[in-house]
Amino acid sequence: MTAPSTYWSRRGFLTTSGGTALALGLTGTFTAGSAHALPAEAAAEDFAALRAKWRTLILGEGFSPAAEPFKSKLATLGTNAKANWDTMAPADGSLWPGMVYKDPEPDTDQESYGFSGQIQSSFGKLYTMAEAYAQPGTGLTGDAGLKDAVITGVEHLYTQVYNENQARYGNWYNWQIGAPQSLMDIAVLLFEHFTAEQIAKYCRAVDHFVPDSVMDNYTGTSTGANRVDLCRAMILRGVVGGSEQKITLGRDSLSPVFPFVTKGDGYYADGSFIQHTSIPYIGGYGAVLNDGLGRLFALLRGSAWQVTDPGAQQFLDTVEMAIAPFVYNGLMMDNVSSRGVSRGLVASDPFQLPQDDHNRSHGVMGSIVLLGKGASPEQQARWNAMVKGWMRRDYYGTALANPKLSLLRTSQLYELEADDSVKPAPEPVEHRVFPNMDRLTHRRRDWAASLSMASTRISHYETGNGEGLRMWHTGSGWLQWWGADHGLEQYSDHYWPTVDPYRLPGITVSKKPLTDGQGGDWAGPRPDFAWVGGVTDGEFGTTGQQLRGIFSTMTAKKAWFWLDDAIVCLGAGITSTDGAGVETVVDNRNLGASGEPRLLLDGVPQPATQGWNTKRKTGWAHVAGHAGYVFPGGTVLNVLREERTGAWKDVNRGSSPKEFTRRYLTLWQDHGADPADASYSYVMLPGASAARTAARALDRDWLEITANSPQQQGIRVPSLGFTGVNFWAAGTVGKVTASAPVCVQIREKRDGTATICVADPSRTVTGLTLTWKRPVKSVTAKPGAVTSVETGRELVLTFGDLSGSYGATHKIQVRTV
């Protein structure tokens, strides 16, 4: 695979990129056939209007530079720009000392990536200076010396390296996206101060590195978010250089991004988003794509180049179907940000704050507000209410208090927060399955959870550019969860450099030692099992993962049943021949720098001493302020309190070596070395009190485990009318019989109706007979996949070919007798 961006290319996007349009008048929806007629020859004022609009889109407007938080942010911008100015020292091969871009052996190896990355970083520093010149209240506003320094710097980079005669080396991204974006933004901000010849040669440089041919095919590095970024470079080059052809080509080349895909990069009909062929990336490249499209829609709206492709409306719909499910109370869930979660603390960061799941979401929220200005009034109202709700409920990393959030994003969200006509929307109660990226989300009134899996379609993890070095096991059933009023800091407080990477919560894992970045850059290692996924009725869910451990022989069948106040977790067939120990991690809570919550085992308080551990038969456990855990029939539970020390550099070679220490409380079940057909079962109760946990443990009638074998795994919860079964092989579990390997869920309601949900996670089932030994009066609704129905003393459903339904849920509504 061609390697994607460098360490610097996207790491700051969600916290530092701008793009607000507080007074652009973006209204209405996209409609086909409403394109403005392109004039025979666009007038100079047309391009000037676009430059003015883009200036607003990168600087913002409508805020008071004398009011907080803008005053402080503008002052910081001025301080950073002054530091750049003071240290700029044009020399052969560099513009700043220590930022060498001249490659003595130009090629595409990792060393060359570092040199090409410095070209982009140098343009980025110049953009900071140009912004400080253009923004009010920076202390450098309109400073002629600063303006001249920017021009000198741009000329130096053009003359030395970024010109039409230079051959690329290192990372393609730096040449085709990173550098031209900053260069064209600078050209917009200082347009009247550059000569016509300077503008012409900078445009020639962009034409050289971003030729028209990059739009010829929607493949390789010209897909998804990368495609949008390339279109931005093309369109802005047209705006700066006065080229109708470039703007038109850039606009038209957005069209392949809009349709849903069925393989590879892009958005899927189920809300999944994939980049790099097999990586769930809504929190990274997906966010970049949405921000980029939002700004380009805003730029071109009302002009001769307005985006009128009807597919654009389908893209807008992804805000609620793809992005919103992974934002919870102001944080963007880590399991759709891939290696981006390792982009923590950078030594040069003046704030010494890591990029985390909260500040990653702040840029996303600003993008949604901007996109809403071009959506229907109904969509805009829903999105604004949704974003305001996220902002209000985020007690840990609030957007408006984020010192790293750009001035532009701050102005967007500040305006929304100040608008009393927008009422914050609550979190939804829902269960969402994303079968095309092996992810799901489960939301309740007081907590939320998300699961990460891997399959023949989706990689265990991604490493590249020195990032994501120890995320090997994030696809092994990693279960994240948060409470509405607790736990929002769980994965934010220096989690990735300090957590034991072999003990991520929820995973079943071989303790076989792995090396940093094992598998190599961009390898995206995938297991050879396809039966991964599940079903949902929209509120509850049943999920299964046929797991093969990464770089190990360990295999297992894992199942989760998602209910109103609990998650029932089963494991079976756990087998390994690595010679290493195998564990299932019930939970692993980050307690912060000094946390010591009370731990109860069967109601008995345990020591809070660091380093304390135990291994004992346990029926239930409770961690104060976190959750309760019930072990049906009891289990031998291992518990450890420990302090762990690490640096962000340990998980990302480009990050800070500064060390942090955090406390962890880990609960796990030890299956021993080389287990054969081991199993587990436990019930997680997020946010539960000790009393509720104890009561659930004593209630023998609440849960029936109907199967927990390598062939089938299932449960019944009579009080909820819930039945869930993963049929790894055809068979009968309780009252349900399936003739093929499928996932089945049944919910009976007190009104005499029931919902049956069926999915084919393996995508191999070409025919299915499903029998429910329960009297059924009639089938009131069924999908086309059901070819015949028999009712009466039992229900028999016959399905046709399910293999082409991409693991989607098929719902059948029935009336019971």
Automatic annotation (TrEMBL):
Transmembrane segments: none annotated. PROSITE patterns: TAT (PS51318). Residues 705-768 form the Polysaccharide lyase family 8 C-terminal domain. The keyword Hydrolase does not apply. Residues 431-689 form the Polysaccharide lyase family 8 central domain. Residues 1-37 form the signal peptide. The keyword Repressor does not apply. SUPFAM superfamilies: Chondroitin AC/alginate lyase (SSF48230), Galactose mutarotase-like (SSF74650), Hyaluronate lyase-like, C-terminal domain (SSF49863). GO terms for molecular function: lyase activity. It comes from Streptomyces polyasparticus. Belongs to the polysaccharide lyase 8 family. This is Polysaccharide lyase 8 family protein. Keywords: Lyase, Signal. Residues 54-388 form the Polysaccharide lyase 8 N-terminal alpha-helical domain. InterPro entries: Chondroitin_lyas, Gal_mutarotase_sf_dom, GH-type_carb-bd, Lyase_8, Lyase_8-like_C, Lyase_8_alpha_N, Lyase_8_C, Lyase_8_central_dom.
